[in-house]
Amino acid sequence: MTKTLLKPVLVLVGLIAGPAPAAPRIAIPAFELNDITSLPNTPQEKQRTASMAPLLIAALSHDGAYLGERVADAALTSANAGFGYLFHHPDLAADLGKAQGADWIVVAQHSKPSFLVSYLWAYLVDTRNRQILARYDIELKGNHSSVTEHAIAALARKIKQSLAGPSSAPVSFSATR
Question: How many Å apart are CA 33 and CA 106, to the nearest integer?
């Protein structure tokens, strides 16, 4: 008797509760490399910069609270009028994110003024109101993969922190790594 009552009760509870809300989606286009060293855009630096978006997607999606999604190269090329365009036009970056079905988009540049230090500059943009929610500046000392991984993990933590807290006012974070 208990088994026959339990099944309909569980079905009823499931119908009342409804489906679990989907994790907020964060679009992540490829990071741009702004290498202004005397020997710019080496294959190693291009590869390092290309690894940043996949690392951020993995870091944001790791616990299931957010769903980081890669922006397809074709969509990015179509939306981007040139180097730094989406970075300097967050409203248009928001449109790209919205077209991907994302709630947020992170546009970022990897700026390298010297061989010893580089910076990650990123904006977290709300695709609904086309406004920057937060800006992040992270210094990378060195060019080893562990430095890159540590910086991306720090960026992911800061993004999650921005999204978890009150979002009424823009936030700016700076970190040295």
Answer: 15
